Amino acid sequence: MTDYPRFGAGLWHFASYVDRYAVDGYGPPRTTLEAIELAGSVGDLSVVDLNYPFTPGVGLDEVKEALAAQGLSAIGVTPEIYLRRFCRGAFTNPDPEIRQAALELMHQAADVVRQLGAQYVKIWPGQDGWDYPFQVNHGDLWRLAVDGMRELASAHPDLKFAIEYKPREPRVKMTWDSAARSILGIQQIGLDNVGVLLDFGHSLYGGESPADAAQLLIDHGLLYGMDVNDNLRGWDDDLVVGTVHLTEIFEFFHTLRMNGWEGVWQLDQFPFREDPVDAARTSIRTLKALHRALDRLDLAALRQAQAAQDAMAAQRVVQDALLDTAIG
Amino acid sequence: MTDYPRFGAGLWHFASYVDRYAVDGYGPPRTTLEAIELAGSVGDLSVVDLNYPFTPGVGLDEVKEALAAQGLSAIGVTPEIYLRRFCRGAFTNPDPEIRQAALELMHQAADVVRQLGAQYVKIWPGQDGWDYPFQVNHGDLWRLAVDGMRELASAHPDLKFAIEYKPREPRVKMTWDSAARSILGIQQIGLDNVGVLLDFGHSLYGGESPADAAQLLIDHGLLYGMDVNDNLRGWDDDLVVGTVHLTEIFEFFHTLRMNGWEGVWQLDQFPFREDPVDAARTSIRTLKALHRALDRLDLAALRQAQAAQDAMAAQRVVQDALLDTAIG
Amino acid sequence: MTDYPRFGAGLWHFASYVDRYAVDGYGPPRTTLEAIELAGSVGDLSVVDLNYPFTPGVGLDEVKEALAAQGLSAIGVTPEIYLRRFCRGAFTNPDPEIRQAALELMHQAADVVRQLGAQYVKIWPGQDGWDYPFQVNHGDLWRLAVDGMRELASAHPDLKFAIEYKPREPRVKMTWDSAARSILGIQQIGLDNVGVLLDFGHSLYGGESPADAAQLLIDHGLLYGMDVNDNLRGWDDDLVVGTVHLTEIFEFFHTLRMNGWEGVWQLDQFPFREDPVDAARTSIRTLKALHRALDRLDLAALRQAQAAQDAMAAQRVVQDALLDTAIG
Amino acid sequence: MTDYPRFGAGLWHFASYVDRYAVDGYGPPRTTLEAIELAGSVGDLSVVDLNYPFTPGVGLDEVKEALAAQGLSAIGVTPEIYLRRFCRGAFTNPDPEIRQAALELMHQAADVVRQLGAQYVKIWPGQDGWDYPFQVNHGDLWRLAVDGMRELASAHPDLKFAIEYKPREPRVKMTWDSAARSILGIQQIGLDNVGVLLDFGHSLYGGESPADAAQLLIDHGLLYGMDVNDNLRGWDDDLVVGTVHLTEIFEFFHTLRMNGWEGVWQLDQFPFREDPVDAARTSIRTLKALHRALDRLDLAALRQAQAAQDAMAAQRVVQDALLDTAIG
Q1: Is B142 on the interface with A (CB under 8 A)?
Q2: Contacts of D311 in chain C (CB under 8 A)
Q3: C-alpha distances in angstroms, D272 versus D53, D155, D239?
Q4: How far is the C-alpha of A192 from the C-alpha of A194, rounded, in Å?
């Protein structure tokens, strides 16, 4: 028996990818059902976040069955408001008809959340923003972003909406770009069913400390979910968690634990050139090692070091838990 | 006769500098009075922001006289809460005695603002933050930052306090790091005499669009002041304005004008290896060219382009004002 | 009559794009022939660089006819050694069979260069490199990169091969990542038909000064071609040239002119959300303005400023050519 | 008994610092002799790299005695060609007299190397480069850099000269900015007593993989020395080693071991706000843990993973050595 947290993954972890160079894709396309099957085969996943719409021809009942067959449940649903039709924006598209179409897709996704018994509609407005100086009137753009989210969330008071902020990509600059800006926007929205999904990598490469961002969101009661991965701080590489920033991901998990935040540890990774099941298993292996290291952390010593803001003492405590430092 | 805005500068523009390598300084030290004289010699400056304390032996009356002699007035006073004593933090120092000492220095600076008839106490808490993962308890640190500012500002309801945010340096990470986070903190402070001084370069290298940050602050009624400079987006280089980001500084000024924001155009530059008067004159020459270009901007065409988020059309309008594009 | 340089473009400027989010593409796919027609419609383009293979069903004769019909000629051919098959590397793929397949594709592209009378085979090994720490043996990887290029170029002594370096993307780290490293590698190759295509944006976001990189390549006799665009220094945004870094693109062109480098001014842009013809025309409008500004540059004054490394004097000279600074 | 490598430090690790904000310094100044005493008190240091000139009033004999008293020897001497006099450049200063003065200081430092029996003169030309676009003629600047180094090194054929490259700071852009460019320049110099000191942090924040840079330098026979520290990849933070990039520093040491490189593991850190002895001890504690982890690394498995470029397999091997992954 173990006290590990529940693990989850964005279902896109098990898709294959395209980018602007490998336009024929990094592998053959996979259907929603195939991705669910791969997710199930990882062995340690309890929940997935599903893109919506599903791949063509796949119905909701089939998805339910596939999830059940793999012992998975849905934690969230992510409407694809970043496909071609919305490439110049969803909430902030200059064309009111396309804004309306985006809202309609999100209303449908809300329905799917209800039917799957998921926790939230995840809103990732990756095409909302701008590319060039002088392209937009910034006041107008932000109003569109905030008003659109309010219209959406107020139509579904029974559901939660989790905004996943990100500094940029695919837009050169995104509107919901940081934890602080997201909190500001949610305050302007003025509803109690809008919160944030914190992506570790987005926070890191946006220049935040993910631990600090998590604390800020928790203090505002807005941390609806989180997912993890890694990068080199310059881009949203969506690498496998723990491959670069071991200490900072450990600080992130420590902060969640200290706040009694007990949600799912969720993977948002893009294993372009790796086997996705192998990548997920390697990730969870690392997450479990980090979880055990949390248990070993000398909290009293760490508290004392932090009260004095003594970075060296804190590091020694951390490394004693994380590394083999038994022999000096 | 001209309608140029009033120009100003941080008085440190006319100081000489040290850094961790040229520990003997990039030039001989200058007193507050010598710096004021240099500022006056630029010829186009109306106001300065003064560091406090003044250099040893210089009294407030002398400063007043020196300013008057140069036809300058004080726009703000910047208490040096980033010197040795406060190198582990001012508001967020782990030692309550040093926090108290920092507050006392800021109370004195507030008094100097009154006596100089300046507009604001500028608060730049450059040493508040952290350097290492796990060094601080992020929740505690933010509370110290917010509570300290509240204590300071509530003691001087007759004065304004302008927080100058910055992502980092000298701390590896600063607490007041962005426009959005500053607004959040000011809302938590809950007083109406705390606002923001927006530094163009801080915004730029923090991954914001300075024009967008300005709009957000104006929409919250919090843009108390601004200063300009330039950098390569990776660090606070404090280069001379307009030497790298001509289009973005132009968008910044355009945004201020569209909002009817009519404050001082202020220089915050560190001409380490340049003559400071030459650097200031070159800067103002550029600022005047940008100001004239603003007059040439085809606002109707720009508005139309921005309503359609048509980046190319907007660029053509901008370049017609900024460059010689008369001949196609 | 005008003395403008010849203008060119990568043919992909007129394609439509996909990325990992808008997997259904930013617009309907275009064939090689349609892209050529769009390139021709720009009106100021003389040459294009063509991806190879052409889109399915399009033959070489059709391409020749299409180019002729638009008054275009081929400057280079870019074999697509970054598609699915090569997503784990072309020259540096761990599988010798795939390395061989990549070479065969490049041999075919060499043949197309001959038949089109183009200047060079452009080699852009975007999938050569690594994603994770410890993933590769760095010595082995570099040897594969160098040896493969030697094998390729030595098989075609009548042709030129232009390596286009780039710091990263799609690989998290690319092997040919900078001007200096490319020169080193070419020295190791030891052939006189291998050079460099310098992409302004790659240089800029790789932390180089593009003007300095151009000078270094010219001094080694290796600047075979160049293309231009823009970005925010953190990523290869492939924005329209001159929209962000006006001064630095101007310095780049100035450096080329001072060295008597008279090649094509070529666009390598990805107008994801813009009309490609409109984007190309806006680009060339800017390039022409920059070219005229070069004519206005006071070279004697600039030379004097640079001899003294007087940055302020140099800036004034530059702005006098670039902006309206007639009225002080 | 232990097989740990010899540990060393730049003597500046035990100085106190100033920067452009804390102009009164992060602590009271320390003399060369006091710094040596602190270095000795760490307990695990064998060698130091000494700045030259020593602090005023300290002679060479005193330094020798102080080193002997602490059981330390000199590995290198670093002439301070970045102080005020050289703030506009040492080798690349526009003024030939100052270039000459810089060379004279370096000749003196060469003499000190002889007298201390050190391994190399370390050349860190931090003020050589430029700040602004158009400030310099890049061809001229590079020639000054290369010719000056040649003149210096050819005057001392009995000594080694180790260039420490760095992307930037204090100059906005430095001439010797990367491993590849340094190798190129050394080839142009054409002498066999010029090599490179690789600083892990400089490499990291310059966008290199430090392991790859080390391999490249070793393959050219030019890795004369190295030092370690850490940063957030955006700046030369000179943080304590291993506090951020555990995996990448481990890859770096692994690469050195695989090449049989057996030099000193040297600290180049700036503990602005930490006790320098505590920081050095914490560093060496980490370095020892990493060294033990190297012994645990399953080399056969790693070799196999790298031959297949299998990032996941490599990660598991690495984490098995680095972390507690005993329980799955």
Answers
A1: yes
A2: 130-132, 134-135
A3: 22, 37, 9
A4: 6
| Minimal CA separation from D316 to chain B, in Å | 24
Which residue ranges form the domains of chain A, and what is each CATH number? 7-296 (3.20.20.150), 299-328 (no CATH)
- Chain A residues whose beta carbon lies within 8 Å of the beta carbon of residue B131: 311
Q: Give the Cα separation of C26 and A86 in Å (integer).
A: 9
Whether the complex's predicted ipTM is more than 0.95 is answered with yes
Residues of chain C with pLDDT under 50: 1, 326-328
Interior angle at CA A99, CA A96 and CA A102, nearest 5: 155
Cα separation, A47 vs A118, whole angstroms: 9
- Residues A243, C132: C-beta atoms closer than 8 Å: yes
| Chain A from 23 to 62: CB within 8 A of any B CB | none
In B, minimum Cα distance to A205 occurs at B207
pLDDT value, residue D327: 43
Pairing label, strands A194-199, A161-164: parallel
In angstroms, the CA C89 to CA C83 distance is: 10
The type of residue at C149 is M
User: Could you tell me if A171 and C313 are in contact, meaning their C-beta atoms sit under 8 angstroms apart?
Assistant: no
List the structure tokens of C133: 């720490």
Radius of gyration of chain D (CA): 20
Q: Which residues of A touch D286 (CB under 8 A)?
A: 315, 319, 323
| Touching chains, C (3+ CB pairs < 8 A) | A, B, D
CB distance D49 to D75 below 8 Å: yes
pLDDT tens column, B79-133 = 999 999 999 999 999 999 999 999 999 999 999 999 999 999 999 999 999 999 9
Least CB–CB distance from D94: residue in C94, C211, C307: C307
In eight-state DSSP terms, residue A83 is: S
How far apart, in whole angstroms, are the C-alpha atoms of residue B167 and residue B178?
7
Tokens of C182: 């490319």
Nearest CB neighbour to A285, from listed D242, D245, D325:
D325
**Contact (Cβ atoms closer than 8 angstroms) between residue C121 and residue C106:** yes
Q: Are A134 and A126 in contact (CB under 8 A)?
A: no
Query: Is the pLDDT score of B161 beyond 70?
Result: yes
Q: Which residues of C touch B291 (CB under 8 A)?
A: none
pLDDT tens digits for B35-82? 999 999 999 999 999 999 999 999 999 999 999 999 999 999 999 999
Residues 6+ apart with CB under 8 A from B239: B201, B229, B230, B231, B269, D131, D132, D172
The pTM assigned to this predicted structure is 0.98
**How many other CB atoms sit within 10 Å of the CB of residue A42?**
22
Is-contact A273 C170, C-beta < 8 A?
no
β-pair type (B129-130, B173-174): antiparallel
C272: Cα separation from own chain's centroid: 18
Mind listing the pLDDT tens digit for each residue in B212-255? 999 999 999 999 999 999 999 999 999 999 999 999 999 999 99
3-state class of A46 per DSSP? strand
**C270 to chain A: which residues are within 8 Å by CB?**
20
Of C132, C168, C177, the CB nearest to D314: C132
Element (H, E) at C122: strand C120-123
Contact of B251 with chain A, judged by CB distance below 8 Å, is answered with yes
Question: Are D236 and D275 spatial neighbours (Cβ–Cβ below 8 Å)?
Answer: no
Question: Going along D25-87, which residue ranges are E strands?
Answer: 45-52, 73-79
For helices A138-154 and B210-219, give the axis angle rounded to 10 degrees.
60
Tell me how far CA of residue C32 lies from CA of B328, C15, C36, C60, D312, in angstroms.
Answer: 29, 8, 6, 10, 38
* Residues D47/D264, Cβ–Cβ less than 8 Å: yes
How many Cα atoms occupy the beta-carbon half-sphere of B131 within 13 Å?
Answer: 27
